[in-house]
Each structure stands twice: as structure tokens, then as C-alpha cells.
UniProtKB/TrEMBL annotation:
Coiled coil region boundaries: none
Family: Belongs to the short-chain dehydrogenases/reductases (SDR) family.
Alphabetized Pfam families for the sequence: adh_short_C2
Taxonomic superkingdom: Bacteria
Protein name in UniProt: SDR family oxidoreductase
Organism this protein belongs to: Roseovarius gahaiensis
Amino acid sequence: MDLGLKGKTALVCASSKGLGLGCARALAEAGVDLIMNARGAEALEAAAQDIRDTFGVAVTTVACDVTTEDGQATLINAAQDVDILVNNAGGPPPGMWTDWDRDDFIAALDANMLAPIALIKAIVPGMMERGWGRVVNITSQSVKSPIPVLGLSNSARAGLTGYVAGTSRQVAGKGVTINNLLPGIHATDRAAALDKGVAEAEGITVEEAKVKRCATIPAGRYGTAEEFGATCAFLCSQYAGFIIGQNVLLDGGAVNTTM
Ligand code: NAP
């Protein structure tokens, strides 16, 4: 399927590994030139080179921390005129509600709410002027179904979701869509870290923790970055212009709701 994206440009934040990389690769496959970002320059450049070699698109890399004001300024400077913005950052650590103080919440808000809002605010006006744009925010299934040990994530992502619900409807008339992708468990480093945490807390092996988690997912497995990226690319496609302010759950059926 030709997604109608050949020659478009995208900034994909936090994309040297995992779900961000899945999105970058799927967009590259559709012919999109990329600006990729992560903190670690070596893994970022390796991921970028693999995409250049595989898909033949132009890829530039910007190694910086997307959760800081400096990092955001660097990214905005590099990506002022992009057609597509994929917002992503690492997720907050798990813990107990009694442990988190103000600084923990500020860090979570910076990473998973205020960073995407800053990039949207800087980059979407240009998209509106040009009459076309796509923004996809990687959030979490925790927006629909809270994960108690990830209270920092539940809180920050709920804030971003509220912002997107209103803002997406303010920019839709100018050809710009903003939507959220909500991953359930996917086989990435983040999932491995979460499984390690469960194993340590429950005195079981990481493999046992994974089997236990799979038993809670109707699909019986973890999602893949490729599946996730393909959904992102479709949301960015010419065919998705009527999808506005939605929260698309990719969770193998784990969230048990009718709608
Ligand atoms: P991952 O495999 O750990 O990959 C994270 C990527 O983001 C890496 O490329 C990392 O590179 C980059 N990154 C992290 N912090 C960054 C920062 N401050 N600035 C720039 N780049 C940064 O994680 P993932 O599984 O793809 O998860 C992506 C997001 O989805 C996270 O917010 C996570 O909480 C959420 N999520 C994931 C799952 C899942 O099952 N995987 C489920 C629900 C929600 P550097 O470390 O070099 O910066």
C-alpha cells in the first residue's frame, strides 16, 4: 500500500531503539526522510545508518535529551519544517505511590507531557501554514487502564491526553492531525526492564515474569516494534486525515473494555 508519504520529512523523537525506532523504520519504508533523536549518539547513528542502507532515505541524527529545554530547542531548530512529528521519550520508573515526591512528578511531566507539548507548540504552526501535518504521540495503555506501579506514567500521560483532545480539534481545520498511540506491552528494552522489576519483586525468574504477563494478554504474546511502527505510519498517511484526537490502543486485547 502506498501511504502517499514519499518525500515527506519526519522528526521521530527517542528513536534509536524500541517503539520509536519501529516508527522511524516504518516511515522510512514509506519514503519519508528522517530526523532521528536519542541521547546516546552511537546507537542513534547505527540505527540511522541501517535505515539509510535499507530504505535509501535521507536520515540526519540529533543526539540530545528531548526532556530538557536545551534538547527541545536543538530539535526544534533542526526540525522546524518537518511534515510529521512523532513524540516519544523514555517512560518513568515503576514504584509505590508512597515513594513519589514533587521532583519525581516534575521529571515525569517534563518527559511525558511537557516535552511533546513544547514540540507540538513549536512545529505545528508551520504545518498549519503549509496546510498538512501529522503528529503522533507515543503514550501508553495506562491512559485507558491504569498500571498501579507506573503511577508517574499514568499521571503524566493523562495530562498529555487531555491536551491533545482539545488541541487536535483546534488544528484539524488546517490539515493537521494529532493522535496518540497507546502501547500495551511490546518486546523492547523497556519491557525487559519492567519484567526484571517484577522478577525481583516476586522472587521469580525474568522468563517466569514474562510467561505470567503473557497470560494476561489475549493475543498471548508481546507486540513488536514493527507492528507498532506500521500503525504509526498509517496514522501519518494520506488516508488518515479524518482521524483526529484519537487514542489508538495496541495491546493484544489486554485492556478489557468494550470501547
Ligand atoms: P526503549 O526500548 O527503552 O527505547 C527508548 C528509546 O528512547 C531509546 O532509543 C532511547 O535512547 C530513547 N530515549 C529515552 N529517553 C530519552 C530522552 N530523554 N531523550 C531522547 N531519547 C530518549 O523504550 P520503548 O519500549 O520503545 O518505549 C517507548 C515509550 O513507550 C516509553 O515512554 C515507554 O514508557 C512507552 N511504553 C512502552 C511499552 C512497552 O511495552 N515497550 C508499553 C507502554 C508504554 P537513549 O537511551 O540513548 O536516549
